[in-house]
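> forwarded from #structure-qc
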């Protein structure tokens, strides 16, 4: 059952009532209001839980929160403020939006999106202003992809074309693209149709030395392959993945980018995660091997045991590639099983699920590998993962089953205690 919701004005009124009628101090009044609404089952995730600033004008109560004050300054100065003042105003708004989703939601409810987009379009010729405006747009749309409209989609495409040589502007613009595409299938499809994919892949090639941009662009490419919008009956995740690979040379670009950032585990993790999302066809898995991607990942796994997150993403990528039976042979012959077992020994919690899934992929239709994997102690490690890591329950037992081990299955329902009636 969904929780009840209230408006920001209702919450603020309750806080003021506690202060005025019950003479509570601001912190106590705020705490009491939160407890009161939560006890009634109200969802406060979209509420700014801060005591509003005092206002002498009752009609301006909605402007008392700092994010709304910053928005009002932007709205007033959009046409009249000087360049330094405009940048200061937009940066202030961005800082407020970065405090949390509640601030962003409140700003959006009070009409922030058209104000920010208007500022972005007017300032696009001034590099510093464009950077500040895009930062605000990226902050505002974080968790609110529905805000983006056709005009905003076209602006993002245009600004990425205009500032292709500027890594800072490009990086922030791509961040805004990513925010607008998470859990929003229509935005993804519209942006892809508008030419977004070549802009992302070209950004990685052009700024291959900028780890932050490479990570951001790779992340945005991965989001284009998501199927996470429950409102969409049919998604284009598979089509987008194929387009990235076949039309925009995505696999080679990502693998080369990974090789250029061996010391940056954050960028490497994202690149491996994106490569795994692109291994959607048998020939793509083989292409990754032919491009040196599998060999690179095996080396990366051997050299990166101290980074659990990177190990997790590498194992996930190898699992995806090992969907190709020929790749299974390559993984095993290259000592991949030993590396997987070592990874599980080092990090029994974080990458355990990916290791179990990878082992399952290796022995699927290739039972001759079972004995080799078992001799390395995989059974005990998988059993330990099942016992200590909740996410590994079903996956771990499935891996044990496919390895030919004894698995104790719990009977969830026996048909007792009642009967099924029409």
């Amino acid at each position: 059952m969904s929780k009840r919701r209230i408006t920001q004005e209702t919450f603020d009124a309750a806080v003021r009532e506690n202060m005025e009628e019950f003479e509570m101090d601001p912190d106590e009044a705020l705490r009491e209001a939160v407890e009161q609404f939560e006890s009634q089952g109200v969802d406060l995730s979209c509420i700014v839980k801060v005591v509003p600033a005092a206002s002498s004008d009752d009609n301006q109560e909605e402007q008392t929160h700092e994010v709304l004050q910053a928005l009002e300054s932007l709205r007033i100065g959009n046409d009249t403020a000087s360049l330094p003042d405009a940048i200061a105003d937009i940066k202030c708004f961005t800082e407020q939006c970065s405090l949390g989703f509640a601030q962003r939601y409140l700003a959006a409810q009070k009409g922030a999106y058209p104000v920010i987009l208007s500022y972005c379009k007017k300032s696009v010729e001034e590099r510093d202003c464009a950077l500040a405006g895009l930062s605000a747009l990226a902050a505002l749309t974080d968790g609110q992809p529905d805000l983006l409209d056709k005009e905003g989609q076209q602006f993002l495409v245009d600004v990425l074309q205009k500032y292709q040589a500027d890594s800072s502007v490009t990086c922030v613009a791509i961040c805004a693209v990513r925010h607008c595409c998470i859990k929003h299938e229509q935005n993804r499809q519209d942006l892809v149709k508008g030419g977004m994919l070549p802009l992302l892949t070209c950004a990685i090639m052009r700024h291959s030395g900028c780890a932050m941009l490479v990570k951001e662009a790779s992340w945005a490419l991965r989001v284009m392959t998501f199927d996470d919008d429950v409102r969409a009956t049919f998604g284009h995740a598979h089509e987008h993945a194929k387009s990235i690979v076949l039309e925009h040379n995505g696999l080679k670009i990502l693998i080369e980018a990974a090789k250029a950032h061996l010391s940056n585990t954050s960028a490497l993790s994202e690149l491996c995660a994106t490569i795994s999302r692109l291994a959607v066809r048998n020939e793509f898995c083989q292409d990754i091997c032919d491009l040196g991607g599998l060999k690179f990942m095996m080396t990366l796994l051997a050299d990166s045991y101290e980074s659990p997150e990177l190990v997790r993403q590498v194992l996930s990528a190898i699992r995806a590639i090992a969907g190709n039976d020929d790749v299974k042979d390559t993984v095993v012959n290259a000592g991949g099983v030993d590396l997987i077992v070592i990874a599980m020994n080092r990090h029994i919690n974080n990458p355990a699920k990916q290791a179990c899934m990878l082992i399952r992929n290796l022995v699927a239709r290739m039972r001759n590998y079972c004995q080799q994997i078992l001799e390395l102690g995989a059974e005990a490690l998988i059993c330990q993962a099942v016992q200590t890591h909740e996410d590994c329950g079903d996956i771990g037992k499935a891996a044990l089953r496919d390895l030919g081990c004894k698995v104790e299955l719990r009977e969830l329902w026996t048909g007792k205690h009642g009967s099924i009636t029409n």
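QC bot note: Residues 1-52 form one domain. Residues 58-63 have pLDDT under 50 and may be disordered.
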